[in-house]
Structure formats: C-alpha cells, structure tokens
Amino acid sequence: MLAEDWRIGIGYDLHTVVGGRPLVLGGVPIVNDFGLAGHSDGDVMLHALIDALFGAAGLPDIGEHFPDTDDRFKGVSSTEMLGQAVAEIRGLRWTINNVDLTILAEKPKMSPYKSPIARSIAELLTLDVQRISIKAKTNEGCDAVGQGRALACHVALTLKRGA
Ligand code: MG
Questions:
Q1: From ligand 1's centre to the CA of 44, what distance in Å?
Q2: 51 Cα to the center of ligand 1, angstroms
Q3: pTM attached to this predicted model
C-alpha cells in the first residue's frame, strides 16, 4: 500500500449573465451591473471548485449533491455548499494541497479581484493563500463568454491522503 495517495480533480462551470442580480465570484461580492443566473447565488468559481473537490475524491458531482430541483438549495450561498463539500472531503481524510482556478470573463475586468478572491478561497478552505492561484482571461470575443453573455471557470486541484 502506498504511503501517500494523491488525486487530481478538475472542475468546470458556466453561468449566463443576468441583470438585477448581485455578482459573487469566489465568495467575493463584485461591484458590477449584472450577476449570474442560477438556482443558488450563481458563484461560478465556487461551483467549479466544488466539482473539482468531489471529482478528486471520486464523489458524485455538485448536481447530485445539491440538486437544483430541491428547494432547500434555492438561493443558497455557494460558500455554504463549499463548506459542506470541504467537510465531506476532510471526513474522508483528504487534505487539499493546492488549487488553480481560471475565470473566463469579458466583463468585469477581473485583475483587481484576483487577490481578494484568492484570500476568500484560502479562508473558505482554511488553506495558505500561497497554495491558491487565480488566473483571469477573456475569451477574445469568441462564443457566449467572449460576447459577454456568460462567465465560465476552470479549476484544477490536488488532494493528498496519508503519511
Ligand atoms: Mg453552477
């Protein structure tokens, strides 16, 4: 039996842009003139992160954990869902080693928010901020993201268990 067990998780999510909703990314409220559609608060970054955690641990995905047909999760904060996911992962003795996120957004300009989002995610995961990377890109005008009709996020992370 290996002394250490390492797992890689990947997560992806996309939410469409909608007016009249607050924008929350990585648990950070963003001053903006639109938010994201969704059964929850639409935090596309935390949703991708949650799926990467579940994926690395070989658990059912976010949709199975928090069905959008279930009224218990209507309008729920994604930070709460992340808290439940982290508790489940840690209950299985996994340690989060590092997290690498890429947010794809034509608007708003993400660079001022990269550090606040990294600190927010570090706090939510009780992880050193040095183990979290936030990258931001536009989609160069291509597809719905590039045309400003949606925001998307990719996440890769590693989990470690054992010695
Ligand atoms: Mg989502």
A1: 5
A2: 9
A3: 0.95
Q: Which residues surround ligand 1, an ion (CB under 5 A)?
A: 13, 47
pLDDT in tens, the chain (163 residues): 567 899 999 999 999 999 999 999 999 999 999 999 988 889 999 999 999 999 999 999 999 999 888 888 777 789 999 999 999 999 999 999 999 999 999 999 999 999 999 999 999 999 999 999 999 999 999 999 999 999 999 999 999 998 6
Cα(45) to ligand 1 centroid in Å equals 8
Segment holding 61, helix H or strand E: none
For ligand 1, the distance from its centroid to the CA atom of residue 133, given in whole angstroms, is 20
Question: Are 60 and 101 contacting, i.e. CB atoms less than 8 angstroms apart?
Answer: no
Q: How does DSSP assign 1-33, residue by residue?
A: --SEEEEEEEEEEEEEEETTS-EEETTEEE--S
50 CA distance to ligand 1 middle (Å): 10
